[in-house]
Amino acid sequence: MKRKILACVLTLALFSGNGVFAAAPGGTPQGAVSATPEAYRFQLQGNAYDYILAEDDLASVTSRCFAVKNTRLQSGGQTTKVWDSAGVTFDPGHETSVAGLMNPATGSIRDTWTDFAPDFLDYIDYAHVWTTEAGPAGASAYSTTCGIAVLSHTEWTRNIEKIGYGGVGGDWFLRTPNSVTGGQVLLVNASAGSIGGVSFGANRSVRPCFWLHRDFFKEVRLNLDATGEAVFAVMRRSYAFEELRGLYSVEELLRMGFEPSATVAGITFRASDVSGVANADDAGAEVRVLREEDSFEETYTIEWTLQTLSGWTKENVRSYAPHAAGTETLTVVGETGTKQIDFPNAPKGIVKA
After folding, report:
1. Strand pairing of 350-352 and 317-322?
2. Quick check: 42 and 51 in contact, CB under 8 A?
């Protein structure tokens, strides 16, 4: 996927319901956590920066996921930036503002923030419309079209059990305005998680958030030792075992909770279909299906390749029968290495005996 650089658009609008800040700033929001739970964290292979998978809609038409940096950005050793010298809105048109520095008209976020993982750049949704709710002191709601933002109050509270407020190294900006007359935006206190207001001319920490296209987790390799179970769960329900075979080994996919599978004529076979094995998943049986055609017959081949040989004996047996006949039963016997069993004349598929 090639990166698209799109012009950023700022639109003022009035919203109701979720478009209005629901509570005055002050105390720590209910459910807030100081540290981001390990389950939602992930790192890219060869990159030590920590990110959070906050939301996903990979099963939907838009097919994207919402990620947040788990620490503040750094720029030339500096750990804070001025929000904006011109106002309280998140406006990439102001080149020296936080918004402009994360969404430059040319180049990339890496030109300013060197600790932003470059692998994300080709997968970010640069056409995303960020809706920012009205502030508690009368600031109007608005929307911004760009690739990278900082969290709104709504986005943080919606994922408050996933995105820790602490461990960032300093208080961090939200993009929700506090008030226009007071010239303030909201920020999160990194020590207590409480919400307060700060002048738009103030220096504070910046945590970027962005939406990633579906192909990201299929094409960019993760550091499995620094990736949590909630991230693996999203991957398992979004991708098939075979989709990730080019990126991870069978052993790694098993570790991530995937089960090898293959489908013949609408029938899905999985590694756990090998019965009699006490630890079928641990055995790491990879299922692969081949289909051959000629003018005389169709042959379906089910192939088990054993990645780990412990616990596998010739007594481990699984029987299958052709779907139509029901008279011929073929038996798969587990052996060291690879075992192939042919199912001739089964145009309607194969079912378990």
Report:
1. antiparallel
2. yes
CB burial readout 208-224, b (16+ within 10 A) else e: bbbbbbbebbbebebee
d(CA 262, CA 319): 17
Degrees to nearest 5, angle at CA 237 with 233 and 242: 105
Give the side-chain half-sphere CA count within 13 A for 105: 7
Q: 352 has which bridge partners?
A: 320
Q: What is the 3-state secondary structure (H, E, C) of the chain?
A: CCCCCCCCEEEECCCCHHHECCCCCCCCCCCCCCCCCHHHEECECCCCCCEEEEEECCCCCCCEEEEEECCCCCECCECCEECCCCCCCCCCCCCCCHHHHHCCCCCCHHHCCCCCCHHHCCCECCCCEEEECECCCCCCCEEEECCEEECCHHHHHHCCCCCCCCCCCCCEEEEEEEECCCCEEEEECCCCCCEEEEECCCEEECCEEEEEECCHHHHCCECHHHCCHHHHHHHHHHCCHHHHCCCCCHHHHHHCCCCCEEEECCEEEEHHHCCCCCCHHHHCEEEEEEEEECCCCEEEEEEEEECCCCCCCCCCEEEEEECCCCCCCEEEECCCCEEEEEEECCCCCEEEC
Structure confidence at residue 180 (pLDDT): 67
The structure's pTM equals 0.73
- Which pair of tokens denotes residue 340? 């192939």
Residues 6 or more apart in contact with residue 252 via CB below 8 angstroms: 224
What lies within 8 Å, CB to CB, of 164 at 6+ separation is 33, 34, 35, 36, 37, 70
Residues 6+ away with beta carbon under 8 Å from 270: 259, 260, 261, 287
Res 260: pLDDT? 62
- Residue-wise pLDDT for 225-240, tens only, equals 999 999 999 999 888 8
Q: Dihedral sign, CA of 150, 154, 156, 162?
A: negative
